[in-house]
Amino acid sequence: MANLTAQRWQAIQTNDARQNGRFFYGVTSTGIFCRPSCHSRLPRPEHLKLFLTTEAALTAGFRPCKRCRPTGQPVTVAEWVTEIDRIIATHYAEPLTLTELAQLAHGAPYYLHHVYQQQTGQTPLATLKQVRLQQAQQLLRTTTQPVSEIAQACGFQSAAYFSTCFKQVFGQTPRQFR
Fold first, then answer.
1. Displacement of CA 150 from its chain's centroid (Å)
2. Is the dihedral of CA 160, 165, 166, 167 positive or negative?
């Protein structure tokens, strides 16, 4: 692994293609690694791990970026869908839009939606809602938190919307479920 120097951080911030091949950076919050020139969303410095080779990044468990293709090989659709599922499972509590999801997965929103639905039979946002509801179900079973707090902890914008979604899927309100 390499150290994050001021020069390397500047290269990542400015997408400096002259630094390509000299180092690669992995983002711990997404599990993806990129070239310095990648135009994906700028990661936080504390989420970075730097590598001198693609092999080192792969060995450390990072997957190549679909956008900048640091290994020179395209990422398979199946690998990308797995990555999208992992991002949803990790970031479900955040206000995650399709655009934000696409940024985290290093792809275009429309293409991500199309590929994901083609591979899984449902949209990424439907999967996100499903994950949120499963997490809410778990919290309803194991905690005494108020329904409004559970709704917020699971990424729902309001307790009313949460209750409506919960009843549509499970046939009862969160209070009845509890």
1. 21
2. positive
What pLDDT tens digit does each residue of the chain (178 aa) get?
788 899 999 999 999 999 999 999 999 988 899 999 998 889 999 999 999 999 999 999 998 988 898 998 877 889 889 989 999 999 999 999 999 998 888 888 999 999 999 999 999 999 999 999 999 999 999 999 999 999 999 999 999 999 999 999 999 999 999 9
* Closest-CA residue to 59 (of 71, 73, 42): 71
Nearest CA to 124 out of 136, 144, 146, 107 is that of 107
Helix or strand holding residue 48 (H, E) = strand 48-51
What is the DSSP secondary structure assignment for residue 2, as one 8-state letter?
A: B
**Residue 34 a catalytic site member:** yes
The secondary structure of residue 23, as a DSSP letter, is B
Please give the Cα distance from 93 to 154 (Å, whole number): 5
pTM of the model: 0.70
Phi-psi region of 69 (alpha: psi -120 to 50; beta: other; left: phi over 0): left
